[in-house]
Amino acid sequence: MVITFLSSASEKFIMEFFKRNIVYIMKIIQQDLPYNASERITALHQKVGCLQMVKAFYELLPNDATKTGSELDTMWVDSNDNTAQQHKQREIKNTLYTTFTSMREEPLASDLRKEAEDDRKAILCYNQAVLNAFIAFSLRFAVKEALFVKIFGKAGKFSRQYIWNSVVDVTHTICLKLELDQPLVKSRLQDLHAASGKLPSDDERNITYMASIALTGSR
Questions:
Q1: How far apart are CA 38 and CA 22, in angstroms?
Q2: Per DSSP, what are the bridge partners of residue 161?
Q3: What span, in angstroms and rounded, lies between the C-alpha atoms of 62 and 57?
Q4: Which residue range is the domain that position 157 belongs to?
């Protein structure tokens, strides 16, 4: 709800919102998880909300407001709630980078399929939120492909895996209803013609489609 409100607010209002909340948001993200199972699930959901705020932070504010050394960044760097020791590690981008690296290198679950349902859902939501926030930062500031290789390449201290193993619920059965009985591109063209009231030209009727475009019968 807050994200929806911010997305339609003025830049001045968004800046004021983050001035009031950036330290709290980053503190929640940086905090270690509790050992108690129920408290851990609650903490993960809190982190998800704050990570969604960070995603909005990078998507809604201009570069000058989100870059290293900006007013908002300095507020977090200088905060007593920031537990990072080295000055550079106290920056917003590096708190986020550390969070993403931890999620990739030392995942909360080595195999989500073995987790209890509530734990699996909480971890999955957290992993997705971390990835979304880090991608929002990367799209804004990344200038080298190495960062995207880190995101989408294999990683993991104990078993090297792609990011999809951490953000896709492999226990969920996906059922694709086959609704096409002809090539996808041809079907879309015909739908467009029908919607516009135009008849297809002779050339369009004679287009040859690759069999690989058709979805019917694919497994």
A1: 26
A2: 155
A3: 9
A4: 2-167
DSSP secondary-structure letter at 89? Answer: G
Q: How confident is the model at residue 183 (pLDDT cuts 50, 70, 90)?
A: low
The b-or-e profile of 53-85 (16+ CB within 10 A means b, else e) is bbbbbbbbbeeebbbeebebbebbbeeeebeee
State the pLDDT at residue 211: 45
Closest CA to 79 of 129, 4, 14, 25: 25
pLDDT tens digit string along 54-75?
A: 999 999 999 999 999 999 999 9
- Tally of domains within the chain: 2
For residues 119 and 196, state if they share a domain.
Answer: no
User: Does residue 214 have a pLDDT over 50?
Assistant: no
The full length of the chain comes to 219
Q: Among candidates 8, 18, 158, which has minimal Cα distance to 92?
A: 18
Euclidean distance between CA atoms 19 and 127, whole angstroms? 26
Q: How far is CA 168 from CA 1, 51, 107, 108, 111, in A?
A: 24, 18, 14, 14, 11
